[in-house]
Write a structure and sequence with these properties.
Elements lengths: L1 H25 L6 H10 L7 E4 L4 E4 L16 H5 L4
Antiparallel strand pairs: 1-2
């Protein structure tokens, strides 16, 4: 009886884990059209990044632009992305 219960629990766990991993592969994050347009127009900045100051009081100029989405991430806010905060 114990073997039957253990077998059922293990197989149920395996099936539910594989079902979750399959569903996560089919859902890719989508960026808004405005974010994609902004990224395509601003991604090729050839100037070197420059940081000045320190951690508490510093600035970063000409930083590389992060894409709005990737294989396992999506930028959290379209409004922030379009304001140049990416």
């Amino acid at each position: 009886m114990k073997k039957l219960i253990v077998t059922i629990l293990v197989s149920t766990t395996f099936i539910s884990c594989s079902a979750q991993s399959d569903s996560s592969k089919t859902k890719k994050p989508k960026a808004s059209l405005l974010c994609n347009h902004y990224y395509n127009n601003n991604k090729n900045d050839s100037l070197a990044s420059t940081s000045t100051g320190n951690e508490a009081n510093g600035t970063l100029s000409n930083a590389a632009l992060v894409p709005p989405t990737g294989d396992n991430f999506c930028y959290f806010s379209d409004q922030s992305y379009l304001a140049g905060r990416a």
